[in-house]
IRG-type G domain-containing protein (Trichodelitschia bisporula), 308 residues
Amino acid sequence: MPRSNTLIPFLCIPRPQTNLFRNLYTAYIMSFPFKLFLGFGGVLVGAQQGGSNEAKEDKFSPAQIRKERDESGFDPSCFHVCVCGSAGSGKSSLVNAARGIKNSKEDASAAPTGTTETTRERASYANPRRPKQFLYDTPGHGTQAVSAQRYYYDQKIYLFDLVIVMYGERLREDDVEILKACRKNGTEVILVRSKSDGHLAGYAEDNDVEIPSAGPGYVGETTQEMKETLERVGFENVDASQPEKPLVYIVCTENIRNIVNHQPTRREVIHERLLLAMLDKMEYMLVRPMKPAAKAPVVRTPVKAAKA
Ligand SMILES: Nc1nc2c(ncn2[C@@H]2O[C@H](COP(=O)(O)OP(=O)(O)OP(=O)(O)O)[C@@H](O)[C@H]2O)c(=O)[nH]1
Ligand SMILES: [Mg+2]
């Protein structure tokens, strides 16, 4: 056996006989160390970008969260709400509606909305209705521009007082990952399903009923699906029996805006009032003014009248 054939049993590739193929073969074999090097580099880059499963398991200490909140300019005396979720789920529309603002390309104070991928960077919006409340609009995950894998970290979702995970059509695996990560870090998190006006019309069509009577069936199906999903992914004590604490808040953003502005609602109202009340209550619990410490009671000792 010629010397150059000693690698062949290891690689299990017969050495070609013609000169051209022999040269190609040699180049192929020589490139192995570089491939190994590049491959290893690739793994490292992947891990740095959060490609590894370990990165998803990160837990943040309260001290680290406080530090990052300071660095990010969060006013500790305010209530910070992150609206996140998949692209097009209605996040920016919810931010506008909760502030009583209509979606509008002309209104510079409105979060930009649209039927194509719209929000590209996280932005915070003060709520004129509630001066201590800040709503943060985020880009949607799962697009070519926004990787779902890094979303939780890139958007710093662990910094917020409350996280709203929004979905419109179907809850995605990535939404569930956000729920799990929030729970792990002890962040308050709720699920909101938007576009109830469209879903109610769809439910009415599918079940051959009128829209006003589609509500209970649609809400029941959505809640049941959510209960099963949460239990399947390991959430314990999933309680869907408390109407005032829905597993998923089902809303139409136009209704929210009208309620905030004390205008009549045109669509069927489901959980819009509950959602607004919950936001206000959480804000109150978190940033309520501290009561002044009770003063020690003044003990008056009766002064005996001096004897004449
Ligand atoms: N019918 C209906 N349409 C809605 C509702 N909420 C949002 N939309 C529409 O859904 C589309 C997407 O809404 P956006 O608020 O821009 O969604 P987004 O999640 O911010 O989108 P990205 O920033 O691209 O991720 C817009 O055309 C909205 O008008 C709703 O409750 N009902
Ligand atoms: Mg948006």
Notes: Residues 61-287 form a domain with the Rossmann fold fold (CATH 3.40.50.300). Residues 78 and 131 are 8 Å apart (CA to CA). The chain has two domains: 3-48, 61-287.
